[in-house]
Design brief:
The chain is of the alpha+beta class. 39% of the residues lie in helices and 15% in strands. The longest helix is centred in the N-terminal third of the chain and has 37 residues, at 14-50.
């Protein structure tokens, strides 16, 4: 008499299934975090675009003004949001620009991006008392809040904590 043949079972074992699900979960969590950072960077680039008009105005004013203006009188400020993600645009008496962030996410809403006119050495901020009549050769761009700083373009990651604390924005 022939013995019955055993049928070989096909499919995954429970352990293989659990390991597969765990690997997919880890990869998914990494992808979601990267997507959130990518989205934040894209939205912050819109905030940077809102500064273009003000950068041009400050650079032109450094060449043409005869005396230092008061904070908030460079002619490019905005008390209302200019784009969906940029809030108010303010300037200091030395021409530093501060742009608020809004409608982005809870981590960076209410923080600021700063643009500071710099001398040709790229490290010394310009001062209206000493540098009116000189061209703005460089701009320091950055933030005083690390999550904003990390979301800015790589060419715009200066720590502007000293400017944020010492400037008279209006």
């Amino acid at each position: 008499m022939k013995s019955p043949k055993r049928r070989r079972q096909a499919g995954f074992t429970l352990i293989e299934l659990i390991i597969s699900v765990a690997i997919v979960a880890v990869l998914g969590s990494i992808a979601i975090a990267q997507m959130r950072d990518y989205t934040r960077r894209a939205k912050i680039s819109e905030v940077m675009m809102a500064a273009t008009k003000c950068k041009n105005s400050v650079a032109e004013s450094y060449l043409t003004m005869e005396r230092a203006p008061e904070p908030g009188t460079w002619g490019c400020e905005s008390a209302t949001p200019t784009t969906r993600f940029s809030g108010v645009v303010q300037t200091s008496s030395d021409g530093a620009i501060r742009i608020g962030i809004q409608n982005l996410d809870g981590l960076v809403n209410g923080q600021y991006v700063y643009l500071i006119p710099m001398r040709s050495d790229g490290t010394t901020p310009m001062n209206t008392v000493a540098h009116l009549g000189e061209p703005v050769r460089n701009w320091a761009c950055g933030s005083d809040w690390l999550p904003v700083l990390n979301a800015l373009p790589t060419s715009c990651r200066a720590d502007t904590t000293a400017i944020a604390a010492g400037s008279d924005f209006n």
